[in-house]
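help with this:

***
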Amino acid sequence: MDRRQLNIERLRLRHLKLLEMVESHDSLRAIAEVLNTSQPALSQLVRDLENAFSASLINRSARGVSLTAAGQLALQRCRQALATIDHLAEELQIGEIPTLRIGTNLVLLHDEAFPTAFANMFAEGATVRYKISSARERLMVQALTDGEIDCYLGIVNWDRMPSRSAIDLSYESLGRTPLTIICSREHPLLSREPLFAEELLEWQWALQPDGSYHRNLLENAFRNIDLRTPSPVVEVSSDPFALVQLIARTQLLACIPDTTIARAGSDGLVKRLSACDLNIEASNIQFVTLTQNRSFEPLNQLYKHLKASFARDGKDPSA
């Protein structure tokens, strides 16, 4: 065993947690007080870390301490390791059945493919506990890179993600969900046949924030036929169901995943609008996990059943 490997073998959890402390505190003295240890002992922990990885991880100056670029990378890796250890401890406390932590968004939770996949897994006798959480894509991808969840199911606007978030992520398309323009049940545009994209621009819109994934797809569709893009009078950053409620009570237009209107449409809240010359690209539903997680069998089973469910629903990822 070489010296570098020997130094790594000597590391303990307190070494890994030190990087988190540096990120949240501005001096070694403050960290030493929190950990109830001396500054010399803390400095030794820093040296142990840097010797083990043969890299400078912490900047020291008169203004305090901060992580170097290498330190930031080390922190991301350490968070994954610490989260994995915490998760293992929870699993062992409640028994030997593994727990699969799934992150997703509200839209996918209402897609038929999601409950169908779970129904098929349970029918096959799956012996796994599932913990499902929902939040915006950026928070879910961050939770994944921090090791707080095992996979994320949903759309990912990679252009808006920090480049570091994509490190060692494995992602595959599950399928595509069409986007639909909606209006209220008595909107004047419903009587127009045929309906053209230019006519849609005569009306006011409620859209997701500028740069969001679905809004980009809508705007690209208008640009592709040399039209200006819709200019919203209302921006809604919450889930698409909030847009449905707004559209149902106004004469605004909006663009949402078809799975959302399929649910809302059963109550007759809104109607679909289809312009004959407007082709909006379908949103890509992705299965994202850490590369190192792909050997986890419950994760592979979830992916297999989701892929099959999306295929049965006709959401061809290659379309």
Residues 3-76 form a domain with the Arc Repressor Mutant, subunit A fold (CATH 1.10.10.10). Residues 141 and 169 are 9 Å apart (CA to CA).
